[in-house]
Fold this protein.
Amino acid sequence: MAKAKAKVTIENKQKVVAIPSGTRMLIRRCCEATLQTENFPELAEIDVSFVDNEQIHELNLQFRQVDRATDVLSFPLGENGEYDHNPETGAALLGDVVLSFERAQEQAAEFGHSLQREVGYLTVHSVLHLLGYDHVNGGLEAVRMREKEETVMAKLGLSREDSFVEKPEE
């Protein structure tokens, strides 16, 4: 199978958090590593947007009827492994990732790991959603998705064991 290649378009639509240098490269690496791990056979296009908590709250309410901010939303364009293709490039159009950079920063502090690890995890998680994985109903699907996430994160050098710190019980 050919090596997956990803064309990742990234747009910053928020002004709350300064985007650290290297973040765009990290996101591209995460997309590429996820596609490679999943043996995605063709060129893929993914659009990533950085938003703030207010913006992602609005999107979460509009598209999922959940009245709160979340960390990341995925908007897959494919179904059952079938994707439309960009007529100019031939790339499979996987969909959109909307990441609250504000929430990612909060969660990195809450979980005691780097912002890099949090953004990496959220990106891998979201790309797996674009590829059809889901965890919402729990069970084996959720376990399988978590295993995939950790496999990709380990390949990127961002594994959980390397980045979590013990939090004292309160």
Summary: Confidence is low (pLDDT under 50) at residues 162-170. The helical segments are 23-37, 53-64, 101-111, 115-130, 139-155, 160-163. Residues 33 and 152 are 6 Å apart (CA to CA). The first strand starts at residue 6 and ends at 12.
